[in-house]
């Protein structure tokens, strides 16, 4: 009789244990599904927000182009050569920013459908770094920021797409300039590590909080309160940079710079 009761108690305990396990597993699955659903909703909202944001971003340079060309057409006889030059420079700057935005949207759509391709040639990464840093040096000087380049001369020619790598550097350097205050420092380094090239863009600016480090490489991600309204971008630069580096078989990530600032690193295989 006792054995019978003990067996029943054991069986009940076992059933209870199984029920608890099933419940626990179901709850875990439900919470996972919920998280996935929340992620999808967030992504959908970002996409929805993106259209008005994009229209707004395109509208600003378009208004400048319209206003400046209108003034030129109506007042060209009364304007000084200097005034005409200023208006033409405004038209050029605004059309360049529109071209960048349109180019970014095209890149993103190609990446999203897996149709993004790189045009590999045999080049030296140090030459590309020299060219890009040379271009940004004058911009850094205007902002009172020092920009230095340290290259590893052991890096020989390798296979990569120079135009696309310039695009990545362009974004990393313009970000570093945007988020580093006056008097700050930007350092660009190339290193050969085994069969890889490591490129670092280090700044002494605001830095990236740990919670944001992975999010930044997603579409339209921007750190709240980190963006100066004057220099707002669309939040596509790092997403595109990641796509370009991964198309080369490399990786890109962000680390903290000590004592402050961010260090963006990308790798390229030495092929
Ligand atoms: N060096 C940096 N220091 C601090 N925050 C940064 C740095 N680089 C990027 N970020 C943060 O990451 C966000 C995303 O950068 P990303 O380059 O993708 O977009 P963006 O610069 O805002 O716009 P876009 O590059 O499309 O013109 C930035 O808006 C900023 O919040
Ligand atoms: Mg950017």
Keywords:
alpha+beta, Heat Shock Protein 90, binds adenosine-5'-triphosphate, 271 residues, binds magnesium ion, 56% helix, two-stranded antiparallel sheet, 5 helices, 5-stranded mixed β-sheet, single chain
Brief overview:
This protein has 271 residues and is an alpha+beta fold.
Model description:
This protein has 271 residues and is α+β, with helices and mostly antiparallel strands. It folds into 2 domains: 1-116, Signal transduction histidine kinase, dimerisation/phosphotransfer (DHp) domain (Helix Hairpins, Orthogonal Bundle); 121-269, Histidine kinase-like ATPase, C-terminal domain (Heat Shock Protein 90, 2-Layer Sandwich). It is built from 5 helices and 7 strands; from the N terminus they run ααβαββαββαββ. It has helices at residues 2-75, 81-112, 125-142, 162-178, 237-247; strands at 121-123, 146-150, 158-160, 185-193, 196-203, 252-256, 262-269. A 5-stranded mixed sheet has the order 2-4-5-7-6. Strands 1-3 form a two-stranded antiparallel sheet. Helix 1 (2-75) packs antiparallel against helix 2 (81-112), helix 3 packs parallel to helix 4 (162-178) and helix 4 (162-178) packs antiparallel against helix 5 (237-247). The longest helix has 74 residues, at 2-75. The termini are far apart. Bound molecules: adenosine-5'-triphosphate (ATP) and magnesium ion.
């Amino acid at each position: 009789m006792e054995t019978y009761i003990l067996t029943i108690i054991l069986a009940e305990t076992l059933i209870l244990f199984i029920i608890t396990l099933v419940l626990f597993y179901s709850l875990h699955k439900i919470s996972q599904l919920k998280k996935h659903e929340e992620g999808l909703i967030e992504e959908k909202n970002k996409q929805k927000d993106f259209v008005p944001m994009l229209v707004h971003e395109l509208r600003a340079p378009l208004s400048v182009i319209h206003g400046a060309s209108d003034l030129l057409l109506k007042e060209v006889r009364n304007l000084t050569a200097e005034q005409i030059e200023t208006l033409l420079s405004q038209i050029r700057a605004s059309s360049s920013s529109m071209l960048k935005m349109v180019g970014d949207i095209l890149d993103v759509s190609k990446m999203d459908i897996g149709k993004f391709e790189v045009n590999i040639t045999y080049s030296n990464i140090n030459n590309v770094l020299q060219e890009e840093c040379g271009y940004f040096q004058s911009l850094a000087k205007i902002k009172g920021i020092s920009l230095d380049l340290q290259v590893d001369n052991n890096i020989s020619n390798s296979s990569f797409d120079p135009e696309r790598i310039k695009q990545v550097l362009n974004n990393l350097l313009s970000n570093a300039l945007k988020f580093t205050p006056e008097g700050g420092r930007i350092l660009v380094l190339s290193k050969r590590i085994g069969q890889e090239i490591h490129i670092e863009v280090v700044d002494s600016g605001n830095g990236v909080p740990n919670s944001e480090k992975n999010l930044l490489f997603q579409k339209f991600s921007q750190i709240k309160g980190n963006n100066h309204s004057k220099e707002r971008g669309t939040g596509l630069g790092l997403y595109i940079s990641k796509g370009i580096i991964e198309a080369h078989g490399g990786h890109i990530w962000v680390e903290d710079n000590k004592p402050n600032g961010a260090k963006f690193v990308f790798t390229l295989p030495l092929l």
